[in-house]
Amino acid sequence: QVATSARQKEVAFRDGNIIHASAINSTEDLLGNLLLKRGKISKADLDKAIALHKQTGRQLGTTLVDMNLFDREEVVECLKMQIEEIVYNLFSWQEGEFKFVEGVLPKKVPIMVELSTTNIIMEGTRRIDEWVEIQKVLPPDDIILKLNPSPRAKRDEITMTLEEYRVLSLINGERTMPDLIEASPIGEFVTCRAVYKLIVSGLVQAAGKAERKNEEEIQNDEEIVLSILFALYNNCFYRIKSLVETIVGDENPMFHKYLSGFRNGFLVYFPGFDPNADISPTFDRFYNEIIKIPPAVRMHTVMSALENMLSNQLEYVFYFLGIGPYRQAINLVKKEVSEPLALKRELVKRYQIDENLINSVKKAERVVKLVKGAS
Questions:
Q1: CA neighbours closer than 13 Å in the CB half-sphere of residue 224
Q2: What is the distance between the alpha carbons of residues 264 and 266, in angstroms, rounded to a whole number?
Q3: Strands of 2-3's sheet in order across
Q4: CA-CA distance, 341 to 348, in Å (whole number)?
Q5: Quick one: pLDDT at residue 280?
Q6: Gap between the Cα atoms of 131 and 1, Å rounded
Q7: Exposed e or buried b for every residue in 128-165, given b needs 16+ CB within 10 A?
Q8: What is the rounded distance in angstroms from the CA atom of residue 370 to the CA atom of residue 363?
Q9: Residue 73: its pLDDT value, please?
């Protein structure tokens, strides 16, 4: 079991393989929705199956087989995809409580599948790296996508995967990225990857902005950007702090020197703060401190300070712990940023939040090269 205050997931293993996964407070594990999106079942039949499922308490997949709407193999295929989506989503979590219970099988799961845990871990790790590149190409959330009427193909024939073809069939000049993800039967990551490849290949292009929602439905952009910045750098600072603490120990003078970098301005609102201070890192406290900065220079001040702070931390790790821990820190930073950067892609691009992070890493890399070159 893995849980946060808002989400909870359970993953069951047998003989080292994943046999079941479920998610609470999430819609991603609804088998019925998956079947509906894939055109495998009508809304009326699904409603009947759900009603019977609730009456009998039997698993929805079993109910669908009992009603002769599907054979067992079709349900197993969709269950595998459902489990993969649930588990892959865990790779974007930054924190959570973990509990392992041995010798207990999931209840009311007569149809079990078997997935290689090793393959799932390898794919999940690969997706984290790939997601950063995909994000650079995907349009903002309010941009409508359409087919390119004059694609520049190098050959007369265009080759695409089944996933790309499925997503291509959903692009109608009316849907935005969130609309495509909602309508797609193949999950968020695979859908985004397919759109990325279709754009890069020139088959799909932007068709203009969708109509804006009512002002009452639009949150303050600046507050949203600050929340993304807080989540992004919060993740990075915490992981670097944990790495340094693990290597040198919390009683080492080097560790206390590292913590001293958090003892000025709004930087105390991050998890590297002085443990003897009377404050703790929360977004509300961070935000209340930030709005004291004059609006004209607020975002520039915040982003410059965070950019410099992250590069300084990476440089610190290199100077005092060496190239190995430094590379570890860089990898931790890259892994931690995927979820925050996936929030509000339009704002991420407009405020160049991703560029801010890249600049931090580049600054540190330049220092490392200079030091290594001089040694």
A1: 14
A2: 7
A3: 17-24, 8-14, 2-3, 97-98
A4: 7
A5: 56
A6: 26
A7: bebbbebbeebbbbbbbbeebeeeeeeeeeeeeeebbe
A8: 11
A9: 83
Tokens of 247: 């290597």
Tell me the CA distances in angstroms from 371 to 276, 330, 358, one per residue in order: 34, 17, 20
pLDDT at 25: 47
Are 336 and 94 in contact by the 8 Å Cβ rule? The answer is yes
The better pLDDT of the pair 346, 102 is held by 102
Q: What is the spatial distance between Cα 66 and Cα 289, in angstroms, rounded to a whole number? A: 59
- State the first-to-last Cα distance of the chain, in angstroms, to the nearest integer: 49
Q: What percent of the chain has pLDDT over 90?
A: 11
- Looking up tokens 């985004």 gives 192
From the DSSP assignment, how many helices (H) and strands (E) are in the chain?
16, 6
The amino acid at residue 213 is: K
**Structural domains of the chain, with CATH:** 2-120 (no CATH), 138-152+160-214 (1.10.10.10), 221-374 (no CATH)
Going from the C-alpha of 305 to that of each of 175, 229, 325, the distances in angstroms are 38, 11, 24
Q: Read off the pLDDT band of 195 (50, 70, 90).
A: very high
CA distances from 204 to 151, 263, 343 (A): 8, 49, 23
Q: Is 0.70 surpassed by the pTM of this model?
A: no
> Left, alpha or beta for 7 (phi > 0: left; psi -120 to 50: alpha)?
beta
How many C-beta neighbours within 10 Å does residue 15 have? 7
pLDDT in tens, 268-306: 666 555 455 555 567 787 888 888 888 878 888 888 888
Q: Give the H/E segment covering residue 17.
A: strand 17-24
Residue with tokens 């712990």: 321
| 222/218 Cα distance (integer angstroms) | 12
Question: What number of CA atoms fall less than 13 Å from residue 183's CA on the CB side?
Answer: 14
* Mean pLDDT to the nearest integer, 153-162: 73
Residue pLDDT, tens place only, 198-217: 999 889 999 888 876 554 44
